[in-house]
Every structure is written in C-alpha cells, then in structure tokens.
Amino acid sequence: MIKTSVDKRRVCVIGAGTAGLCALKNSLEAGLDAVAYERGTEIGGTWIFSEEMPKDEYDEVHSSMYEGLRTNLPKEVMGYPDYSYPDDITESFITSNQVLEFLRSYAEHFKLKAHIKLQHEVIRVRPRLDDWEVYVWDHSTDTCDPVYYDFVYVCNGHYTEPDLPEVEGLDLFEGNKMHSHLYRKADKFKDARVLIIGAGPSGMDITNHVRLAAKQVFLSHHLSTTPNTAFMGNVTQKPDVKRFTKDGAVFTDGSTESFDHVMFCTGYKYTFPCLSTDVGVQVIDNFVQPLWKHCININHPTMAFVGLPFNVIPTHIFDMQVRFTLKFFTGQRKFPSREQMIADLEQEIGERWGCGVRNQKKAHQMGERQFVYYNELASIAGIENIKPVIHKLMKDCGKKYIFELDTYRSNKYTILDDENFLKNGEAIV
C-alpha cells in the first residue's frame, strides 16, 4: 500500500470497552484516522451483564458481570481524566449498569459511535513491511476482509479466559465445578455447601453474595493477612486445598471438608487469539513479553497493548498508556532503540524479582509501583500525570474489600480540587 503525504495515519483499535473507547477517542483527537472493532452488539466490554453461558466447550463467554455487583473502587477514581461521572450519582460505589451507562455517555460525548464497528470481530492481525494487515469478520454479513493500518491498539480485555489452578484430585470431585467468570446469581447455591477458592476482590465479594443463599461457605486462600469475615456467620476460612476428594477436599493444614460446589475465583489469563505468531509477542505464565513499559510491542513498536497492568486505577492507566503511546505514534517522541527497550524491560523485571517474588504471573502487577509507573510515563513522553488527589483517594480506599467489606461501600467521596477530597463530608489529610 502506497501512502501519500496527505493520507491520515490509520489506527485499528481492537475492542470497544473501557480501554478501547479511550484509545479511539485519544487517537481521533491526535488527528489520526481511527476505527474500533467490537465483536459484540454494543459497547462496554466486560461491563455488559449477560446471563449467557457457554453453548459447548469451545464457546467463549465475554462478560464476567454478576447480579448485584457494585464496584470495589469509588466512581471518583473510575472516570477518565477529562470526563467524570455525573454529579447526580450520589453514591461512590456504583452498579455495573451505571458504569455501562457512563461508557455510553463517554462515547456519545466525544462522538465516537461513527468510528465504532459493532459485530465486527478481528480474527487475525499480521505485520507487513510497513503496516498491519487486519482481517475483520463482519458477523452481520458473514464476510471477512483484510484492512490495512499503520498502528494497532490491542484492547480486548483480560477477563475472558479463566485461569484455573492445577490441584490434585480435581477430576475426582463429583460436585459442581465452576470459575467465577460464569457466576451470575447466588440462588443456584441455595442451602448448599460451597467452597470458594481465592480471596481477591471478586472472591471476597462473591463469598459475601453466596453466603446469603448457601448453607455453608468455605473460603480457601493463602493471604498473609486474614480477611474480615466476622459478619459472615456461615463462612469458614480455610488454607489452600492440598487435594480434592470425591465429595470435598483435604486442606494443607490436614483438615477436611465436604461440599457440593467449588468456585474458583483465581483470576484470568492474558490471551490474544487474533494475533499471528509473527507479531512477536508471547505470553509465558501470564507474562506478556517483550513489551516496553508494559504496553509497546518491542518487536513491532507500532502496536500497543492497553490495560495489562493490574492492581491499578483502571480507567486512568488506560488513558495514560494511550496518551503515552500516541506521543510516539504521532512522531512527537522517538522510540528508544530496540536494545534500550529490552534493557529497560530487563531492568524492571530484575527489580521485581529482586523483591523476592520470582513469579511471572505478577510481572504486570502494580500496587504501590503504579505511581512510579505513572511518573515514568509522564516524564518520558511529556504528558500530564494522574492528579495527586486520585493517588490520595486510592490510598484511602485500598484493601477495603479485605478488612471492611461489610461497610466500605457506604463511604462517599467528593473531589474538591487536584489535591484534596472529602470522605463522608470530612476532609482527609
């Protein structure tokens, strides 16, 4: 394909969820010709609630939303830097449907709909000499054609492919086995005995839902700090499962329990089924590599991945990664050499492993490191950093799902300015 000097550089955005909408909006504002492909019938990605279940073992269910879900972060940190939740929503911890409505309003406000192709699934992305060949399947016409782009944003999310641990004897267990990805309602566990594995945000929240219907819930985890379940009368905490039996499990402390259901709240795998092998990115034990600053494909720097880091402020990090990469895509900044990007990656991984945790599954985990990361992106690309008030507010509400699950969603936050906020009407220093 020959490009003339008057041609706009073209951007392919894969997915129209929180990350994809942000990539589309910022690309258009940067003067690029951008299109977002969404395989579903509406925008919103994982925030779309659906009771859909797999039709067979090969079928894939996209959404992980369940009935009664409320966010575990306040809406005050869930908006985009240039588009906040409306003031008429008084609660801070909101429903999944309110998040979905917000994403729709974001798309409407920035006039994104004309640039979104619904029911269009990207099935293959392949690098060429100086651009990308993208095969798009139009589900409405059942046709598949190649389109060519200068840049690709991979925004397909990572809450679709469950990550199930290998535990001895699981095949022997005769009860019901499921991942939280397919959990929708608590009533299927009425009067049952349930084992829930994992005490992250979803594990704790689902435990709190299920215990209202179930006869007994066992919460298995290996957290160093004990979560607060004092308000959950029928929940018993257990260590890791050593092995499953026909009707239950033996735990690492030697205790045994019997139960009817086991639910794995054990996270998800990063998967990119549409990317050809010559894209030059691989996933090894949930470590997507080689990427520069967790987003740029080092082997083909005109491709960026948005939203891989976890334990972060999702919407803000999506927006920041997009603005960071656009500085390079538009030529305002020049990429370091491939050798320098590899050296940067190796240095960061060395620092992570140096902290005593040689676990590739945590290669994209941020936590407190996220603010160092934001500073790096802002400094390297000369972009606006996340406002200090967002940092402060995040520190105030961090880990509340473990210690204050029964009360923390009643807190109400109000952002006063770039530095200060109120919590339940009181200033927090």
From TrEMBL:
<comment type="similarity">
    <text>Belongs to the FMO family.</text>
</comment>
<keyword id="KW-0274">FAD</keyword>
<dbReference type="Pfam" id="PF00743">
    <property type="entry name" value="FMO-like"/>
</dbReference>
<keyword id="KW-0560">Oxidoreductase</keyword>
<dbReference type="InterPro" id="IPR020946">
    <property type="entry name" value="Flavin_mOase-like"/>
</dbReference>
<protein>
    <recommendedName>
        <fullName>Flavin-containing monooxygenase</fullName>
        <ecNumber>1.-.-.-</ecNumber>
    </recommendedName>
</protein>
<dbReference type="GO" id="GO:0005739">
    <property type="term" value="C:mitochondrion"/>
</dbReference>
<dbReference type="GO" id="GO:0005829">
    <property type="term" value="C:cytosol"/>
</dbReference>
<dbReference type="GO" id="GO:0004499">
    <property type="term" value="F:N,N-dimethylaniline monooxygenase activity"/>
</dbReference>
<keyword id="KW-0285">Flavoprotein</keyword>
<dbReference type="GO" id="GO:0050661">
    <property type="term" value="F:NADP binding"/>
</dbReference>
<dbReference type="InterPro" id="IPR000960">
    <property type="entry name" value="Flavin_mOase"/>
</dbReference>
<keyword id="KW-0521">NADP</keyword>
<keyword id="KW-0503">Monooxygenase</keyword>
<dbReference type="InterPro" id="IPR050346">
    <property type="entry name" value="FMO-like"/>
</dbReference>
<dbReference type="GO" id="GO:0004497">
    <property type="term" value="F:monooxygenase activity"/>
</dbReference>
<dbReference type="GO" id="GO:0050660">
    <property type="term" value="F:flavin adenine dinucleotide binding"/>
</dbReference>
<dbReference type="InterPro" id="IPR036188">
    <property type="entry name" value="FAD/NAD-bd_sf"/>
</dbReference>
